[in-house]
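RETRY 2/3 - previous attempt timed out on the joint model. Re-submitting the same 1045-residue input unchanged.
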Amino acid sequence: MRPILMKGHERPLTFLKYNREGDLLFSCAKDHTPTVWFADDGERLGTYRGHNGAVWCCDVSRDSTRLVTGSADQSVKLWDVQTGTQLYTFNFNSPARSVDFSVGDKLVVITTDPFMGNPSTIQVKRIARDPADQTSDSVLTIKGPQGRINRAVWGPLNKTIISAGEDSIIRIWDTETGNLLKESDKETGHQKTISSLHMSADKSHFLTGSADKSAKLWDARSLTLLKTYQMDRPVNAVAISPLVDHVVIGGGQEAVNVTMTDRRAGKFEAKFYHKILQDEIGGVKGHFGPINALAFNPDGRSFSSGGEDGYVRLHHFDPDYFSIRM
Amino acid sequence: MAAATALSMPEIENKAMNLGIDLSTIDLDKIVLPPGDDFGIKSDDEDILHEEEAPEFETGYGNVIVVDNLPVVSPEKFAKLEGVIRKIYSQTGVIKEGGLWMPVNPDTNMTLGYCFIEFNTAQEAKEAKEKTDGYKLDKSHIFVVDMFDDIERYMNVPDEWTPAEIKPYEAGDHLQHWLTDEKARDQFVIRAGTVTEIFWNDARQLRPDPVYQRQYWTDSFVQWSPLGTYLATVHRQGAAVWGGKSTFNRIHRFPHNQVKHIDFSPGERFLVTYSSQEPSNPRDTHRVVLNIFDLRTGKLMRDFKGSVDDFTTGGSGGLSGISWPIFKWGGGKEDKYFARIGKNAIYVYETETFILVDKKSYKVDNVVDFSWSPTDSILALFVPELGGGNQPARVSLVQMPGKVELRQKNLFSVSDCKMYWQSNGEYLAVKVDRYTKTKKSTYTGFELFRIKERDIPIEVLELDNKNDKIIAFAWEPKGHRFAVIHGDGPRPDVSFYSMKTGGITARVSKLTTLKAKQANALYWSPAGRFIVLAGLKGFNGQLEFYNVDDLETMATGEHFMCTDIEWDPTGRYVATAVTSVHEMENGFHIWSFNGKLLYRIPKDHFFQFQWRPRPPSLLSPEKEEEISRNLRKYSKKYEAEDQDVSLALSEQDRKKRRALQEEWETWTARWKQHHEEERELRLQLRDGEPSDDEGSQEQYEAKEVEAEEVLDVHEEIVD
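RETRY 2/3 succeeded.
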């Protein structure tokens, strides 16, 4: 089916997130204004105004009432999804890179970039049921890894936090003590910056994408490397299909080189791989810049991609997609 | 560790126990043996160390020369002699202050007949030695000039001769082993990043099969010898050739500092190495050094040194920069001659003696280009127009030895000529660019020489539209056809011509023209008949596989951004590669001769792809013909093999898939179990919110319900 082209951002997309029911799609971009869309027809529903810098990441609570966004303006904001009002602002002394609600939505894990001599951190904040009671105290602060931490997410049962970033190592942290539990192997793991990390719906395994032109699938408890998907381009975004055994991987030539060669050289397709066999299934073209964000609708029947070109493309799968046999 | 008195591990453990030592607390790497004592344990590195030659030390006297055979003079004449010497040597370089020292016999106050001169640089000293050794001051005083370092070295030569140790004969490696491959596969070498790898092209399995790989094998590039026997690597200290049965062993080293280019003679008898040294002072000459080695013995046969101007393509223009190879090899596979061009002359050398044929160069005024026939000792040379058109340009064929002019053709208003030999030396095509009457533009024609026919007839060929620009020209290997890409537009035409049409007196004629092709390069199969029309660079890698026998396109393809194309030596496969001219898409693809993409290998920082050449077939032409007649008989066997392999492959594939699937299922089963076990805990985290479907697996059924409802009943009478 023809994709729905969603114009609304003026700068490159950074992140995409569906709510649990899959009727809303939240998009973040470098243009300061996270936006919410109807996930079915791509109609723009509203924006969240208030950030003063690129918005890197967002997450929506299970009941679709709260949205949390992390921005380069050194703040993380909590929003009311329906009204678009700011409920609370967490201020930091460096840009916030990633945010993720815990199971139960009572906690949120935030990563901040290394900036002006401050090292990168992973911080856990408690989200109060009533916004009036909200405080900015950190429940837990983890420091340690060198370089930017591009993504940190909750492991099963909120017992662990899984982080990945510029040093190309995936780490599992204990959420009670803040201790490092496991580290990915340097030999078999990624060789360059890990740009993205996507957790499966049941939090049993997760997929990482890296500038080393590969995506890897890991067990979320043991950090065992399960699969490697070899690409021919740096990977910026990954997503696991909740419905079929597919993963989608996107990326492309670095943005600074895009104008220097033929458009086809950029490899701005979203590539589908068979999750188990690791074979390429096909690609979805369309963007004219690298793909920065990918997300599957929780029903697995559509997916959306966000590009450096500032567009979100919403694709509903054709019926024959579900009958692909490898 | 190759211990002389090797202890087994249990013995060691026992011993340690007796001595009360806990072995696990000892870091073996930290144990250092007293110097000079190896306790009977030989180091593995020793051999390697000894294998390398003793390093050369700088004595610091490299810039000092010794001039002998000077007149012996009294103190009165000392200053005069010193002045003369200073005058002679300040021409070749700068003598250091106080760098001229003429020792004096303290008893007689007479000089001793020699002096030392210290120059600023070693290079100047070398040049001074070369220029003044043998200089005649007068009849009885002929200079003998030596480097100071050499004297020292010769002093150390022992007076008594000791016979050289005769090494026992060691059987050499089987250098042609790769030709005995059971599956008759071909090899290729690739260079990506710092690694050089050699593979079999296993087209049946649709993948390359590794043979050998090595990191930092070469400093700049690798090159197969023309018959595929050796692989040459290039290093700072010189070139090396490698070969052998299964691994690649070093066969020979050819010392040549800062070597830049290498070239094999076509029969693999000789190796030419080249280096050039840019002067630090721009006024100095740019010097080049060429060495010719015997490939089998590693012996230096002859070296050529000189300024770069001596080696640039002659002509009056005095072009800067050399065109490699400087020496072109002639006389077919026997490597009988090699030649280079100079100003107003061609220097032809014999490999028998390594001196000029007839002891002198072959004078041709204003010659600018020459080439050898690939099979015979025939030189083709080109002399441009002179005297503003009064003296026509000329292409002539000269037989070696004897320098007999076999054929000559004068050409008028020529701007440039290019020569193309057919691989069997049967035909020579000369592409002639001529000025139009206004002299503002040029047009192109061809002069076709039939070398093997009596009197070497020449035919003139002009394209249908003679104003077309010629983009590429290529002879069919061992054949009688050639292909030309011509045209000015963005989509040029490709034409095929044959030299063998029209009954007894053969004539050249056009076979066909393909209109508007995205092609700018031609790659004939080494077996002839098939050709790849390639659109490199601006055409982004368009490929067309064309059958010239049937004049039809077999397949078209694309290797996006492709930079290099090479047929394998048998003409069965084509490799297309994107080398690291640009950063993206690096890697290579392998195609069948008829344009089916077999497999592709992406490699970052991909520098080089080269098929290993094969020596010519040992079969007689009759035998070859017989085989091609009975091809069906032979092919049956191979087809059956092919089928077996493909069956085995699909079976393998099935097995692998099943294994992967099963492995995955054990994982998912484990996850499901965890998920169930943690259900309660998750519920608590969610404050008892009941729905535990993780948002996704909500199964619902869409039902289409048809319902009918009667809205109204109305009767109407129709007549």
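The first helix of chain B runs from residue 9 to 19. Closing ticket.
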